[in-house]
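Quick illustration for those who missed Monday's session on complexes.
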Amino acid sequence: MNKKLVNIFTNNTNISLDTKTELTKKLSERGYAVTSEFSKDAELIICIGGDGALLKAIHSCDFPQCPVIGINTGHLGFFQEVRPEDLDRFINDYENHQYSIQELNTVMATITTKDGHKYDHVGLNEIVIEGRPSYTIHLYISIDDMPIEKFSGDGILIATPAGSTAYNYSLGGSIVDPRIKLLQVTPIAPMNTTAYRSFTSSILLPAELSLGVVPEKQYENRIAIINDGIETIYTDVTDIKVKMSDTCVKLLRLKDYDFWNKVKTKFL
Ligand code: NAP
Ligand code: MN
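Prediction with NAP bound:
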């Protein structure tokens, strides 16, 4: 009989590596095969570290289909569900199906360049659009092809509900319960002068609408697209479309998980 397969990803802190050793031993004793290489046959992906480690693991697996759970050895650990001292309880709950699956929507940006090429970027937290090196960026913003505003400032951030508590929150955006399916468009240092007018608060978009972004024509402009902290720089961008993506991340949550309790313990 094939063994049940679990993938473990970890950052390189001592506590994460020790936790990995301990967890691997416990899972092997229960008959699991444990690997550090992503496999499509895995039934569970375990990420040891902070939120950053979970984001990194999800990107390195190209948004896996199987459930993902985080063990928090990092700083904040908003995605993370298990404390390193609770490994036995976690394994018992997992084997007894004492958990729920939190489906988190992702956001996708499609960048079109002057030569007609298209590039996709997916974020679990957010997509950020900024100028590089730092300059005032002017962006024509439309919602489902209806022109809305010419934004001037550092840039814009489009957050998923899962990402609403990350960079979005630091920018003054709202915390969104992930049971609500929406995208939040949050301005980054919007300018409001007699010369420039931009929205100063976040805009909430329903799941089915897309956001269009056209940078003002200045070909020396370089546009940074940052998905979950991963930055890619493009030149000659003619158009960017941002929408909720069909890709979901399935986070495994233990049975006493509650979103607002998590917010309370991590933010207040
Ligand atoms: P980082 O710069 O080390 O992380 C920034 C902080 O954001 C960390 O404390 C991280 O938690 C936390 N975080 C990540 N996702 C979160 C979420 N969904 N809800 C609440 N907090 C969250 O970079 P990183 O660890 O690789 O994470 C990448 C994320 O950093 C980006 O997606 C962006 O949202 C965020 N970021 C925030 C700011 C800001 O707040 N000014 C600026 C740039 C980027 P851990 O400590 O557990 O890793
Ligand atoms: Mn981090």
